[in-house]
Amino acid sequence: MPQTEPSAAPGRFEVRVTADSHFAWIRTRLALERTMLSWVRTAVSLIGFGFAIVQFLQHVQHLPGALPAAHPEAPRYLGLALIAAGIASLLVSLSQYWWTVRYLRSDPYAPIAGMTQEGKHSPLAAVAILLTAIGIFAFMAVLLRIA
After folding, report:
1. HEC string of the chain?
2. Tens of pLDDT along 80-130?
3. Residue 37: closest CA among 120, 79, 94
4. Are 54 and 143 in contact (CB under 8 A)?
5. Are 29 and 104 a contacting pair, CB within 8 Å?
6. Residue 65: left (phi > 0), alpha (psi -120 to 50), or beta?
7. Contacts of 69 (CB under 8 A, 6+ apart)
């Protein structure tokens, strides 16, 4: 009995265009959006909390009768670290988000997605970019003692 040559492997798995696979793609895309929203929420908290620590503890140091702090620059450094962590988390999450969106829109999944490469975009990336700019402004304001 002769051995037949196996056909070329199409990849890791076969992509079939069905209603089930289309809705699975939509669920995956929405899960990606929820994950990105969680990153944004965490980053906003870090940036806001870092800025608030700096502002609050600066005002506490100037209250009448307040004892001088042992390390008066510590709140500023902590605030800068938290703001930097928020900015970094936004940048990492944006990178991960864009990579995953490109992957989900790649050639084998394009028929399932029902979208072109120029398809619909979420405003979430624009919001994350805006918040990154705000975070950089807050970082510079604390670093240069503007605020």
Report:
1. CCCCCCCCCCCCCCCCCCHHHHHHHHHHHHHHHHHHHHHHHHHHHHHHHHHHHHHHHHHHHCCCCCCCCCCCCHHHHHHHHHHHHHHHHHHHHHHHHHHHHHHHCCHHHHHHHCCCCCCCCCCHHHHHHHHHHHHHHHHHHHHCCCC
2. 999 999 999 999 999 999 998 888 887 777 777 765 556 667 788 899 999
3. 94
4. no
5. yes
6. left
7. 61
User: Cα(74)–Cα(82) distance, rounded to whole angstroms?
Assistant: 12
The two tokens of residue 93 are: 């999450």
